[in-house]
Amino acid sequence: MADKANIGILGASGYTGSELLRLLLRHPRVDIALLTADRRAGQAMRDVFPQFSPYALPRLVAIDAIDWPSAGLDLVFCALPHGTTQAVIATLLETAPNTKVVDLSADFRLSDPEAYARWYGHAHQAEALQREAVYGLVEVYRDEIKGARLVANPGCYTSCAQLPLIPLIRAGAIDTDEIVIDAKSGMTGAGRAAKEAMLFSEVSEGFNAYGVGHHRHMAELDQEFSKAAGRTVVPTFTPHLVPMNRGILSTIYVRGTAGKGPEQLHAILAEAYRDEPFVHVLPFGEMPHTRHVRGSNMTFIGVAKDRRPGRAIVGAALDNLVKGASGQAVQNMNLMLGFPETLAIDQVALFP
Questions:
Q1: Which of 274, 272, 262 is nearest to 302 (CA)?
Q2: Do the first three CATH levels of 5-132 and 157-320 match, i.e. the same topology?
Q3: Which CATH class is domain 5-132?
Q4: Which of 62, 107, 115, 285 registers the highest number of CB atoms within 10 A of its CB?
Q5: Three-class SS of residue 121?
Q6: Residues contacting 292, CB < 8 A, separation 6+
Q7: Contact between 110 and 119 (Cβ < 8 Å)
Q8: DSSP symbols for 231-262
Q9: Which residue in 156, 169, 241, 333 is the catalytic one?
Q10: What span, in angstroms and rounded, lies between the C-alpha atoms of 110 and 131?
Q11: Are strands 299-305 and 311-318 parallel, antiparallel or unpaired?
């Protein structure tokens, strides 16, 4: 690998694409060589996001106009909508097989193509690539990510539930039949496309559940919790939309096993994440706030007592655009390209 890697961002005009660019502009080991946005093809990035006015960046191009073999890219971030990504990545890796890919869509997260078809409503279009894809939750799959060509960046909701729960499931410390995840996300989790339901007057001063009983992220949770437990796990999960720009807060209700109480669960999490740069376990009894992780790649986790014996309340907070998407994607890139894992994503949260 040269001193600097040539990087492309597909779907640069969306929130996760622009967040990738924001983070990568301060990365000392990358050059931004390609930016795509089909509807905005031909425009400058500053025309879409004026905050990038001071920076010399390539103009936006349409994906169909790219000659992958001659593009000379070391790694591509794919921030396209699910359902469109499999065919794009299949073409890219067929014609430029030495290029690495971090996919931020849901198209390669589910290892079972039948499960993908069931949850997303169409057949998987790149099953051979699915078999080599590595799920990109760094704190769980770090070693596999280092040698991967294709990494499926996890979902924002799922990251905010898997990080606090997987160590507890692996330790056999909680009853996996009694996991309840109550999660809330800011508006950027719905993407940047114009939608009537996302207008300011439609969401301001309101708060609602959605995808109740059948949200697509359930498939990810089922998959990763079942792997951790060694048996089928089907948690209860309900997402909510909150009229704020950034952030996810998960409030999770669990029952300890074999006499393990909240203090023991806290100790397991504290030990699991003792040396992790981007997961911080708060002192026992404290709960995380979304504003304390805003703009950072951090996940804060807290554990508190439930008033009922044997039960505990586990809280987790992250920025859905950073650790829940683009920051985690850069963390994956750093591992895939042999860079220090924390490079360019170690910023402290913005407050207030």
A1: 262
A2: no
A3: alpha beta
A4: 107
A5: coil
A6: 300, 317, 349, 351
A7: yes
A8: S----EEEEEE-SSSS-EEEEEEEEBSTT--H
A9: 156
A10: 10
A11: antiparallel
pLDDT score for 142? 98
Q: What is the pLDDT of residue 1?
A: 54
List, for the chain, all residue ranges whose pLDDT scores fall below the cut of 50: none
* Domain definitions of the chain by residue range: 5-132, 157-320
Other CB atoms within a 10 A radius of the CB of residue 309 amount to: 9
Amino acid at 322: V
Q: What are the residue ranges of helices labelled H in the chain?
A: 15-24, 45-48, 68-71, 85-95, 113-120, 127-132, 138-146, 156-170, 200-203, 217-229, 262-272, 327-336
- What residue spans of 112-252 are helical by DSSP H? 113-120, 127-132, 138-146, 156-170, 200-203, 217-229
**CA gap 135, 141 in Å, rounded:** 7
Q: Are 173 and 232 in contact (CB under 8 A)?
A: no
What is the model's pTM? 0.95
Check residue 205 and give its pLDDT: 79
Is 157-320 assigned to CATH 2.60.40.10? no
Token pair of 69, please? 């073999």
Q: What is the dihedral of CA 233, 238, 243, 249, to 10 degrees?
A: -40
